[in-house]
Structure formats: structure tokens, C-alpha cells
Design goal:
This protein is α+β, with helices and mostly antiparallel strands and 425 residues long. It is built from twelve helices and 18 strands. The mean pLDDT is 95.
């Protein structure tokens, strides 16, 4: 959520940000509600002050044993007016809060203005693409040959987009999760948390998934709960409606969770194998930092995610997303795209974003600065990493001519010493 004062004083900037993000929000209606609110608040405050003055005068008259009946009648009328004003003010506040939730975050000045992913730019590349002396296979063929996945039985149980991992495939998936958690905890100094997979509406609203993305979420109607689309949601909200002391910043948290997404807008996108799922695993990094430090921390977090790919020796490049391809809540985002030689394309395995104080305002996450003033923190998060496409990249980059897969060195200890994945008898 943006600061209302910022909107009031920078209307053209906010209008342009909405346009650049391909979003829609009625700024004129918001400004009109803001004006109504301030006028109603002024009238309410004046009437309350008058009520207090008359109340004191009635008290004085009673002490002096004088007639206060006319003032008592005036007080009754005043109380009714105050009640009406209070109701009106509450209705205006509710309408304003709902309208404010439709305004996206303002992109950082360094973000390229563009309409779609075609306008994203590559900021750096790492690793050398492997040269094969045979035709590399796609992950679906390799998984089938080695009995790593069961797409058909997963679909039978739940529907498409819910794969079953078999045997060494399940072991590889678990190895990736444990390796990434250990890497971020031991090397990067994150603190692990385990969080609920079901959250309430307030929590989903706090990080910006609601109201915009409600159709993409799995909703439990009876309780108005949601399955989490990412660990970002519960982890960020750990400090909602709290004021942290200065010495509690920064906070560096990491969590593994399954993630659940309806992918309602995925029509026409490649959903082959593990490329786009309704349930998938992800290790998520979340940071809470002083506003003066968030842009430096964004670069640091991107590097934290990149080091996972470097440790796995998987070629990748980093994209800086344009305004039209960024999320609703982000001020700047980097995407890590890993090379998949079988599919002959780059696949997204991580998004790392700085939300500035946008989520903190929605979720009321604050801290007390060294000068004693209460301010909103800046929140950042990033995948470190999502496993499905990392799984794809390992199968395709480490495949052998006979269809077996060599296990990356860093994963061997997590694979019970297994060095080559092959079909089991």
C-alpha cells in the first residue's frame, strides 16, 4: 500500500506508475474519498470538542445547583449527530482502504519501462553451456526412463499439475530442499522457520496477493482460509501489526514450504512435465531491513540465490524485469533463468524482489528507529530456489548418453552417496 500523502502530493507519478505496470486504479475516486474523509474528520473532531465543552459546562451548572436542562437537550442532539458522523466516517474509511488496495507499488527509477517480458533485460550471465556429443533429451523423457516421476497417477489422484515423485526422483527433490536450506543457513546466515501452509484473508492481503490475485489462489470457503502460494506470505506476516525495536533489524529468514497456485492465467503457457504446476516445492528467503539498506540488500539476496545455481554448476542468466512484467507489489525484481538444454530454453527458478514499504504498510510491520520514531520496515523476498525447474535443469544438464543422470557433486551427500541416477531394478 502506498502512503496516501505520497499519492496526494505526487498524483502524476502515481498515475504513470499504474500505467507502466499495466494496472488499473481510479486515482480520482481515491482523492475524492480522501477529501471527504478529511472534511468528515474535521467536522467530527469539532463536534467532539464542542461536546466536551458543553459537558464541562453542565458539570459546572450542576455543582452550582443551576438549571442545565437546555444544555442536556443540546447534548442529546449532539450525541446523535456524532453517532451519524462516526458512521459516515467509518464508511468513508472502509471505501478508501478498499480503493487503496488497488494501487500497485511504484517501480524504482532504475526499472526499465516496458509492456511485457519481451522488454526485460539480461544484466549478467554465468556458466558455460554444455556441448553434447549426442542429442540431449528433455526432462520428461529422462524422468520416464529412470522412473523418477509419475504424472499419470498424480493426475488420477488430484488432477493435472500435481506430480508424484518416485524413488530416486523423490530423493533428488528432497536433496535439493535440504541442500538449499543448509546453504542459506550456514553460508548466508539465514534463520530457518517452519510456517503454516494455510493462512487467513488478512495475511494474504498483507503481502499483496489479495484482492488482485484471488482467482489464482486455492480458497477454503468454510473458514475463508487460503493455501499459501509461496512461503513469502506467512513468513512476511510473522511481524504483522508489530513494532520491532531497532536492534531486531535486519531479520534474515528462510523457509521451505509446498506452494499452491491455481495458475488460472496460464492458458497458452508451456505446462509440459514440471514446467508449470499447481503444487510445487520452494525454499524462500525473506528479509526485513532498515529503509536505507533495502537496495543494497536486494543485490545481496540476488547473489544468495545465484550461489545455489553456481554450486550446482548450472548455467543461468539474470533478468531485470521491466515495469509491465513485475508483480503488483514489487518495486524492482530480478529473475534467475536457468538453462535447460533438452528444452533449449531458459527457465525461471527464482524471483528476487524489493517491496520497499509497500507490504509493510499493508501488514503494519514497523520498527522504532534510533531517533525513537516509528517507521515502516522494507521487506524483500526471493526464491532460493523453486525446485521444479531446478530439477528439470539438473536432469537435462547432467544427463548421459545412456539416459542416466550424474548427480551434482554438492548433492551427493544428500543423495545417500548416490552418484548416478538410473532406473532401479
Amino acid at each position: 500500500m502506498l502512503d496516501l500523502k505520497l499519492i496526494r502530493e505526487n498524483v502524476d507519478l502515481v498515475r504513470q506508475a499504474i500505467k507502466n505496470k499495466n494496472e488499473k486504479a481510479d486515482i480520482d475516486a481515491i482523492l475524492e474519498l480522501d477529501d471527504k474523509k478529511r472534511k468528515a474528520q474535521f467536522e467530527f473532531d469539532n463536534l467532539k470538542a464542542e461536546q466536551n465543552r458543553v459537558s464541562k459546562e453542565i458539570g459546572t451548572l450542576k455543582k452550582e445547583k443551576k438549571d442545565a436542562s437546555s444544555l442536556l437537550n443540546e447534548m442529546q442532539n449532539m450525541a446523535a449527530d456524532i453517532k451519524d458522523l462516526s458512521t459516515n466516517l467509518s464508511n468513508i474509511n472502509t471505501a478508501l482502504e478498499i480503493a487503496m488496495l488497488t494501487i500497485p507499488n511504484i517501480p524504482h527509477e532504475s526499472v526499465i519501462i516496458g509492456k511485457s517480458e519481451d522488454n526485460n533485460i539480461i544484466v549478467r550471465e554465468w556458466g558455460k553451456k554444455r556441448e553434447f556429443d549426442f542429442e540431449p533429451k528433455e526432462h520428461t523423457e529422462l524422468a520416464e526412463q529412470n522412473n523418477l516421476l509419475d504424472i499419470i497417477r498424480g493426475a488420477k489422484i488430484s488432477g493435472s499439475g500435481f506430480p508424484v515423485y518416485n524413488s530416486q526422483g523423490a530423493l533428488l527433490e528432497r536433496a535439493l530442499i535440504n541442500f538449499m536450506l543448509d546453504f542459506h543457513i550456514k553460508k548466508h546466515g539465514y534463520r530457518e522457520v517452519m510456517v503454516p501452509l494455510i493462512v487467513n484473508r488478512e495475511t494474504m492481503t498483507g503481502t499483496g496477493q489479495l484482492p488482485k490475485l484471488e482467482n489464482d489462489m486455492y480458497h477454503i470457503n468454510e473458514d475463508d482460509f487460503f493455501l499459501i502460494p509461496t512461503a513469502e506470505v506467512p513468513v512476511t506476516n510473522l511481524f504483522s501489526n508489530e513494532i520491532m525495536p531497532y536492534n531486531k533489524l535486519p531479520q534474515k529468514l528462510v523457509a521451505y514450504t509446498p506452494c499452491f497456485r491455481r495458475e488460472a492465467g496460464s492458458y497458452g503457457k508451456d505446462t509440459k512435465g514440471l514446467q508449470r504446476l499447481h503444487q510445487f516445492n520452494k525454499v524462500e528467503m525473506v528479509r526485513f531491513v532498515h529503509p536505507d539498506e533495502s537496495w543494497e540488500v536486494l543485490e545481496e539476496m540476488c547473489n544468495d540465490a545465484e550461489e545455489i545455481l553456481q554450486a550446482l554448476k548450472l548455467p543461468y542468466h539474470v533478468l531485470s524485469l521491466c515495469t509491465g512484467d513485475m508483480s503488483f507489489a514489487s518495486a524492482k525484481t530480478y529473475d534467475l533463468m536457468v538453462w535447460a538444454p533438452g528444452a533449449q530454453k531458459y527457465l525461471e527458478v527464482s524471483s528476487v524482489s524489493n517491496f520497499t514499504d509497500f507490504q509493510a504498510r499493508r501488514a503494519s510491520i514497523r520498527f522504532r528507529d534510533t531517533d525513537g520514531k516509528v517507521r515502516f520496515v522494507h521487506t524483500l523476498n526471493g526464491s532460493g530456489l523453486a525446485t521444479p525447474r531446478t530439477f528439470i535443469a539438473i536432469l537435462e544438464n547432467y544427463q548421459n548418453e545412456d539416459g542416466t543422470i550424474t548427480v551434482p557433486d554438492v548433492l551427493v551427500p544428500y543423495m545417500h552417496g548416490l552418484q548416478v541416477i538410473s532406473v532401479e531394478d
